[in-house]
Amino acid sequence: MDERTELGTETVAMERVARRADVADLLTAIFDAEQARLYAYALAAAHDPEAAADAVAETFSRLVREAYAGRMPENSTAWLFRVCGNLIISGRRRRSVARRWLGHLVDRGVARSPEDAAVAREADAELVNALSTLHRDARIALLLAAEGLSMQEIAETLGRTPAATRTFICRSRLKLREGLERGGQGAER
User: Fold this and answer.
1) Domains of the chain, CATH where assigned
2) pLDDT tens, 19-64?
């Protein structure tokens, strides 16, 4: 390696160090100038001090990543507030979905007793037996309704109108109830 190449490499390395120091100084100045206002904004939007602090921390973390990747936003203040607002909205969505599905989580704290398990298996077998006595379309309609599909979606699946589907499901439920009361024997096929 000749002397000029070695000097060029050292110069490039020194320029990178100087640029990193400039970026660090710029980021420190932005943090000092905007942190309090950004936290106040986040707190007003999130109504939760922890969520606001997390959003502000993540916002500045993303700014640091962008700056060191060479993509420093032109208007850092607007960028900070936009990213922080988006993080708060995303956090709300995640919490909303978590709350919605909370009831579906299994309580692993207490195991089912052997008696409860046997009764549940017996009830499941009776339900399967009673469902098997129903017409195919009735089983499909009831299972789709149990999955939470709308009348419109079930109607489209069965090739019926929503009103006819609603009546069909009511009648199918009655037949299923009768089948369960009889022990699943002797309903229509």
Assistant:
1) 3-102 (1.10.1740), 115-181 (1.10.10)
2) 788 889 999 999 999 999 999 999 999 999 999 999 999 999 999 9
Count CB neighbours of 100 within 10 A: 9
SS3 117: helix
Contact (Cβ atoms closer than 8 angstroms) between residue 88 and residue 56 = no
Alpha carbon of residue 164 to chain centroid = 35
**Cβ atoms within 10 Å, residue 7:** 10
DSSP 8-state class, residue 71? -
Return the SS3 of 6.
Answer: helix
Q: What is the H or E stretch that residue 8 is in?
A: helix 3-46
**Which of 41, 39, 40 is closest to 56 using CA atoms?**
39
